[in-house]
Design brief:
This protein is mostly beta strands. The protein is about 10% helix and about 60% strand. It has a 17-stranded antiparallel beta sheet that branches.
């Protein structure tokens, strides 16, 4: 154990075990296509002559102040504003091959209690989305996707802030009501650079669907043609690099230019409203039940207590 880090071996092992579970869970369906989405991805009569389709997503989440601790010591309350946006174009190269290209960004903004918590004011990413979907058979779809870009606190930017996470996944459509997913992720900045996982989507009754597609697993109930209620959760994560003198500013020089793995777990109910075909609005809330910041190269782990949250999401495809 490093000097100056009072966290116990037991606590550190427990935190790392949960980190592994969360990281693996994120892969379960990161690249899977639900049965209904899989149909949308194929060229259809009436599609644009160019064979190009678009998808855009935007999200805002607020999590109230969470008591943040290191080695059992309370450092103060941290609240969070989270925003994300993504635009991706899908080009139908052949009947069985779709090229995907676009751009995405996300930002975690923190309300910090002075300099007591060794966190930057924000962690964010700006990246490209480059990948392809392959219809291997009538039942199997393969997706390969890379997200090269900047993952940082956007202070003192240099080559250390560059990263290119890669995800490879497969979707097996057993029949229209049952679909399995497998995923493999590579993130060389993370403590766990290679992870794998699995998931399932099962419509087991006329109005009920078990949509165990992490990072957003849900049990869904279709109220009517345009409205779906659900109970579920979400896992947010990322790996970011902090600034040149970040550690010195917090009395811990070894944190200068250190990578930090972020994990957050949210649970609660929500509703999905299909405004019209291809346009969805979602609203949800509940509790952020877990938060972890892991400076894994320096054995420094911060964990947040549960706190309430609210979320709005917009999605459109055309």
């Amino acid at each position: 154990m490093r000097a100056g880090n009072p966290i116990s071996i037991e606590a550190r092992c427990g935190a790392r075990t949960l980190s592994v579970l969360l990281a693996g869970a994120l892969l379960c369906c990161a690249v899977g296509l639900p049965a209904d989405d899989a149909k949308k991805e194929k060229p259809q009569a009436g599609a644009t002559e160019s064979g190009v389709s678009w998808e855009t997503n935007a999200e805002y989440t607020y999590a109230a102040g969470s008591s943040t601790r290191r080695a059992g010591r309370n450092l103060g309350h941290v609240d969070e504003h989270y925003g994300a946006a993504e635009v991706v174009a899908s080009v139908h190269l052949t009947e069985n091959t779709i090229l995907r290209a676009g751009a995405a960004t996300e930002r975690f903004d923190y309300g910090l209690p002075g300099g007591a918590v060794p966190l930057p004011d924000s962690l964010q990413s700006v990246n490209a989305v480059i990948g392809a979907d392959f219809d291997l058979t009538e039942e199997w779809i393969l997706r390969v996707e890379a997200r090269p870009g900047i993952y940082s606190d956007f202070t003192d930017l240099n080559e250390d802030d560059l990263n290119a996470p890669l995800v490879i996944g497969g979707s097996w459509l057993v029949h229209k009501d049952l679909q399995w997913f497998l995923g493999l992720s590579v993130n060389l900045r993370s403590e766990y650079p290679v992870m794998a996982g699995a998931g399932v989507r099962w419509k087991y009754a006329d109005r009920w669907t078990l949509n165990f597609q992490l990072p957003k697993p849900r049990l869904e109930y279709k109220v009517n043609e345009n409205l779906t209620a659900y109970l579920g959760g979400e896992i947010k994560s990322g790996t970011f690099v902090v600034a040149d003198r970040f550690g010195c500013q917090h009395g811990m020089p070894r944190l200068n230019r250190a990578p930090v793995d972020l994990y957050e777990v949210f649970m609660g109910p929500g509703i999905l409203w299909e405004v019209r075909p291809g346009v969805e609005l979602r609203a949800g809330g509940g509790a952020m039940v877990y938060r972890e910041y892991n400076y894994h190269t320096e054995d420094i782990i911060l964990r947040g207590k549960p706190a309430p949250y609210g979320q709005l999401t917009f999605r459109a495809s055309f």
